[in-house]
Design a protein that fits this description.
About 45% of the residues lie in helices and about 15% in strands. It is α/β, with parallel strands linked by helices. It has a domain at about 50-150: NAD(P)-binding Rossmann-like Domain (Rossmann fold), CATH 3.40.50.720. The chain has a three-stranded parallel beta sheet with strand order 1-2-3. One of its GO terms (molecular function) is oxidoreductase activity, acting on the CH-OH group of donors, NAD or NADP as acceptor. It holds the Pfam family adh_short_C2. InterPro entries: NAD(P)-bd_dom_sf, SDR_fam.
Length: about 190
């Protein structure tokens, strides 16, 4: 299913429930697109109270590469979306966040645990944790809370890259790591 279709489906559901929203599909790597989105959002709703950044990509095949096998183009694409996209979103939004607001950056349990393969994704999500720490130092004095969530393996289209299926049964795709608290993957509802 395309991002545009997912966005349209979500917008239709929100509209039916009476929620006021602004639906936009954009490339978070593109500063001008993100800045335009942030301006449109501020014009429609005023100051920002909450923001969640959750860009997360990896190319099929790159998840199986050892560090010495990573292609520059794969490395750059993953870091551009996962890190630069998060940075662009923060840069565009921070000037318009209300005191008492909240930012939630989504990283990954993978960046905390490491893995012999998947270095681009792990490195990118580790950088998101660093951005969250920097944002906390910058925004804390303005009474703006910054949290970074590091979810474990969750059945998403990205995880489908591991097994070749779009939405695999996470428990069959990868055995739970012993360091995972719940010892199981997650499922989106």
């Amino acid at each position: 299913m395309s991002r545009r279709r997912l966005s349209n489906d979500l917008a239709a559901g929100l509209e039916m429930s009476g929620v006021e929203f602004l639906s936009t599909v954009l490339d978070v790597r593109d500063w001008e697109a993100v800045e335009s989105w942030a301006k449109a959002t501020s014009q429609k709703f005023g100051k920002v109270d909450r923001l969640v950044t959750l860009a997360g990509v990896a190319r099929q095949g790159i998840l199986k590469h050892n560090i010495e096998e990573i292609e520059d183009s794969d490395w750059e694409w993953v870091l551009d979306v996962n890190v630069k996209g998060t940075l662009n979103t923060l840069r565009a939004t921070i000037p318009n966040i209300n005191s008492g607001g909240s930012l939630v950056l989504i990283a990954s349990l993978a960046d905390l645990l490491g893995h012999a393969q998947n270095a681009a994704y792990i490195s990118s999500k580790h950088a998101v944790v660093g951005l969250a720490r920097s944002a906390t130092s910058k925004l804390g004095p303005r009474n703006i809370r910054v949290n970074c969530v590091c979810p474990g393996l969750t059945a998403t289209p990205l995880v489908g890259c591991h097994s070749g299926t779009r939405f695999p049964d996470v428990r069959q795709t990868k055995p739970p790591a012993k360091s995972w608290t719940a010892r199981r993957g997650g499922q989106l509802d």
